[in-house]
Design goal:
2 domains; globular; five-stranded parallel sheet; eight-stranded antiparallel sheet
Length: 321
């Protein structure tokens, strides 16, 4: 097994998820990511954890519930790692496992390159940066994002508690992505207004470098127009079968991982420092009421972000460091 991948697997299991000897440790993967799943299993066993490996068939989309057998197994684990081709972050399976005390890390669509690059970052520096941004977001009434590419969107977030995805998932019931590094929260439901231009990448669509950006108009908290090239058509095709809830403006996130790069894989892309992302679909994991089986993030490059009128990022440069 590749040495660099194995070292990253150890960091994920030992440092990020804090798996210890004798714990019930579960790795859930699918047939597309078996190699990475087995590396994490080997890491768990090397630490003395009681390690179980479940491999399922790939699911069709981010946010789709896994088979009941997987959901049930997650309930009985102390710690769960999910390297899979789609995300279980915004599912009842993940939420129920956390409610039962499990520490859960999801790794949707992870590649070996992303694993090696993203997990060898300084997670204590990332955690500090993320927590400071999270505190700022929680104390804010209104966020605004603008870009030279045409983004101009106003996102009310008053009364919403932001979430710090630090990569250090140590407490019972905690969860996050690995690799990690973002501060995020749901907007006030039905209140977001404006336009955002996705010019980095789009979950379920891929890297937009050299392609027509996806322009999304939002009115009263829902995407009402999605325009651009074939990539915009593809995004609409993923949302339309699930009805209006799939068009919900579900999340505002700010990347905080200085080692991450935009590569067309949303797991890494949304963590890139100097970007923001806005998601459509499910917001239940953030305290909302829109429980639909999809959650797709769009990466916006080089944004200027103000919180109650005060800039915290200017043309992609984070101003809090």
């Amino acid at each position: 097994m590749d040495k660099a991948m194995m070292e990253s697997a150890i960091i994920a299991v030992r440092d990020c998820l804090k798996v210890t000897e004798g714990e019930q440790f579960l790795v859930v993967t699918d047939t597309k990511l078996t190699e990475i799943g087995r590396a994490l299993v080997e890491a768990g066993r090397s630490l003395g954890a009681i390690t179980t490996f479940l491999e399922m068939m790939p699911l069709s989309r981010n946010g789709e519930e896994p088979p009941k057998l997987v959901s049930q197994a997650m309930l009985y684990a102390d710690a769960v790692l999910v390297p899979a081709s789609t995300s279980l972050t915004h599912t009842d399976a993940r939420r129920n496992a956390c409610a039962n005390g499990a520490r859960v890390a999801t790794m949707p669509g992870i590649t070996v390159d992303t694993m090696v690059r993203g997990l060898n970052a300084d997670y204590y520096a990332i955690a500090d940066r993320t927590k400071r941004l999270t505190d700022l977001l929680t104390a804010t009434d209104v966020a605004r994002v603008t870009t030279a590419a045409g983004t101009d969107i106003t996102i009310p977030i008053n009364g919403i508690k932001a979430i710090a995805s630090t990569g250090l998932i140590h407490e019972p019931g905690s969860f996050g992505n690995l690799p990690s590094g973002e501060a995020y929260l749901m907007p006030v439901e039905g209140a977001t207004e404006g336009v955002f231009v996705v010019d980095g990448s789009m979950a379920g669509v891929g890297d937009l470098a050299g392609k027509t950006p996806i322009t999304i108009k939002v009115e009263k908290g829902y995407a009402t127009e999605i325009t651009g090239g074939p990539e915009a058509d593809l995004l609409r095709s993923k949302l339309e079968p699930l009805g209006k809830p799939a068009f919900n403006a579900a999340e505002l996130g700010i990347g905080t991982n200085d080692a991450a790069r935009i590569i067309g894989n949303i797991l890494e892309d949304e963590k890139v420092m100097g970007t923001i992302h806005i998601a459509l679909g499910n917001n239940v994991s953030m305290g909302g009421t829109v429980n639909v089986g999809i959650h797709l993030d769009g990466i916006v490059k080089d944004p200027t972000v103000t919180l109650d009128g005060k800039p915290i990022m200017e043309n992609g440069k984070l101003l809090i460091d």
